[in-house]
Amino acid sequence: KPTEPKVFDNWWARYSCQRASPLVCPNQNLAEELHILCRSRELEGLGINALAYERAISIIKSYPELITKETFSRDVMELPGIGEKIQSKIHEFLKNGFIEESRVIRQSERYQAITLFASIYGIGPANARKLYDIGLRTFEDLERYYDIRVGGDLKAIEPNMVTPNGKKIPPSTKIPEITVKVGIALRNELDAPIPREEVEAIYCEVMAQLNILEPGCEATIVGGYRRGKPRSNDVDIVITHPTKAKGLCKRFAQHLYQAGLVTHILHLSGFHAHDALRTEHWDSLEKALTVFILPEGTKFKRTHRRLDLIFAMPEAYWTAVIGWSGSKMFERDLRLYAKEEKYVDSAYRIESLSKSHLRRGLKFDSSGLTRRRDSLLYVPRSEEEVFQILGLDWIDPTMRNA
Ligand code: TTP
Ligand code: MN
Ligand code: MN
Ligand code: MN
What we know:
This protein is α+β, with helices and mostly antiparallel strands. The protein contains 17 helices and ten strands. The strands form three sheets. The chain has a five-stranded mixed sheet, with helices on both faces. Strands 8-9-10 form a three-stranded antiparallel sheet. It is globular.
């Protein structure tokens, strides 16, 4: 059993996977104010800019005490990742208790509408902007646009191709229509956060069904639940089986669908399906992104919930568990950290440097940990072992909220 890390150990380290990041930090208000700036950049398609804010926020989330003018210029300002632009925003917050630009953004019609559209499952920032640019503003606009009523036959309805201001939808706007329609139709249910107790009830039901189809599976609830969030937006479960893991994803998704527990399969991918589309958040694991509803007779109100099932071969189980526990920033830095061959930065403290720089040249993703120079595949037998191979101190899942 790994030793509990000191909560705020290593707060100055470069990568968020080297730092403890609690769910709620001493500088939560500042983090949330900066998050508006981050989110607005993300929604506007300014990825690099958004990432700079996200990094700064993750550094602030690891800082052990309330940031004041003194601690700011003593500690925080010096850290890699807090550039001049962000420094001035933090100064503004320390002076006034808020950031003017965040206020303006929060109140802007564009930010509100695009946030609303992007909150629908299946609509990303780029499509949210397109919908705004063709004149949509409210949820009703969106509903009308997709010509859908709650409870309507989702598959029978063709999308309405004419926008409120009479323009035709541009042919380049390739929204996966059915998915968006499911997202719109079930919006109120899918929007409602899932308490931990219900996450556990869903897990139990899933495991009972899995045990009918293929006894002997091992599984972990991952995602925000594992990081200690009191309420989650969906349920994420990583599953493996000693011999029958391959192909199990599709079989199990169909099993749950036939049992009436999965009402929609939004995405189903096999081991090779996403090779061409691999971005930093896509791995080569089998996964089913679904909509789930608990059977009758539980203590919970029957509500459609997003359920992600991820299947890993036994040798990839622990990297899958880590890769799907998040946060997204933690995952991103794990990849970067694993890759870095050596590290040179004057702001970086020597004790962390000497510990980690020898071990790198690795490639981490949810589907495995390999050595880059000869593609040697590690087969870690526990989550702790993954950290050991990477040369990282253990960070508890509840401290991975970077
Ligand atoms: P999410 O379920 O999107 O987010 P979350 O569980 O951290 O928070 P919540 O659901 O409450 O909003 O993603 C869970 C983890 O899975 C996240 O750490 C990143 C990883 N992930 C992938 O690796 N690939 C993917 O395609 C997605 C969507 C997530
Ligand atoms: Mn989740
Ligand atoms: Mn989410
Ligand atoms: Mn998920």
